[in-house]
What we know:
Blueprint: E1 2-6, H1 10-22, E2 26-30, H2 33-42, E3 47-51, H3 59-68, E4 75-79, H4 84-92, E5 97-100, H5 105-119, E6 126-129, E7 132-135, E8 140-143, E9 146-148, H6 152-163, H7 171-178, H8 189-201, E10 207-209, E11 213-215
Parallel strand pairs: 1-2, 1-3, 3-4, 4-5
Antiparallel strand pairs: 6-7, 7-8, 8-9, 10-11
The protein binds calcium ion (CA).
Amino acid sequence: MRVLIVEDEEDLASAVKRLLADAGFSADVAYDGEEGLYLALETPYDLVVLDLMLPRLQGERLLGELRARDQHVPVLILTARDAVTDRVRLLDSGADDYLIKPFEGAELVSRCRALVRRASGQSAPVLVIGEMEIDMPRRRVRRAGVDIALTPREFHVLEYLALHRGRVVSRSELLDHLYGEAEETMSNVLEVFVAGLRRKLGADVVQTRRGHGYIVEA
Ligand code: CA
């Protein structure tokens, strides 16, 4: 899952990036509102973590621009304001959730996970597909009751395909959601992860649609 952090305080931005990276998100950071808006419109993020007081373009304006352009990406607001009227106004203008600074890292991560889950129409934290159980918060997979050890990247591929099960996901869509801006990707890397998943979970779990992409059947 790929997240955009729009936050001008560099220490806080790095701390949030680290927290989310530890939870399995690929995170990009924008340090002002204009750059944040540009990236959010150009890149298919799974989530935006948005500060309100930003140089060049305020967070609330950024949110308004996103929604005005029909961008449905979930947005979690980080705010130092704790007035109820502010929070109500933000939620009513298209924010999905908010956290008041200072906040606990664990709560930020849990809220981010829940937002990403719900955006793909999923409320339960454990996805059950046939004999397979994917525990997203704990990042564990079981098949027929047996724990299966996956690498972090294998897990991310499986999680994305499983959240979008029943639909063919193209290679470029998968790569967009797996890697942040600064990360190098090699063209054959997906085949390696998919081969790993098939070896560990069984040949039928992730299927290839040649020329189109991959699918986990619903
Ligand atoms: Ca700020």
